[in-house]
Amino acid sequence: MEDASAALKAELEPFLNKPGARQFTAIEIEKQFVWDYCAAVEDGNPVYWDEEIAKKSRFGRLIAPPNTLMTLNRPAHWLPKEQQDKAAAVAAALPPSPQALAREVLAKHGFTTVTVVNREEEYFEPFGPGDGRLAMEDRFVAVSDIKTTKVGPGVFFTYEIDYYTERDNRLVGRARNVTLIYNGSGATK
């Protein structure tokens, strides 16, 4: 398996640590989004809810909870047809990300099933209403040797996503995701 791991890593090397094109979240960070999120998780922090208190805080304004990064990462639940077409055209114009190309290499080797193993988020600066959408820039940063697991042979594939504000291009957070990408047809009992 060492030879197979070395060969796979050599194929993936051209994509390692190369950033993909920036993609924007479907929605802007607005007060209602922040309030809906806080209501869902029952977070009563006044810098998320009360403009007067937030203005007097060290932030000087309403901010979003940092862990909304993952929520903003998701596509919109629904968009009008014109917005769907516009989003599809923007996505089609982007080159494939190095991370996506690396996953294609893995798929060629039979590693097609993905399980998230771990996600860590690091927050650099607050963000919130007035910052526009968030731009996301991903990159593939590591791959393990091929492992034998109970679900089948696979690799641990690590990628990061950097989040920037649309308004002033501030780096506000980074997510590090570790996934197990495996061939489920080789599962053991």
Automatic annotation (TrEMBL):
SUPFAM superfamilies referenced in this protein's UniProt entry, alphabetically: Thioesterase/thiol ester dehydrase-isomerase (SSF54637)
Sequence ranges assigned to domain FAS1-like dehydratase in this UniProt record: 26-171
InterPro entries (UniProt xref): FAS1-like_DH_region, HotDog_dom_sf
A Pfam family matched in the record: FAS1_DH_region
Protein name: Unannotated protein
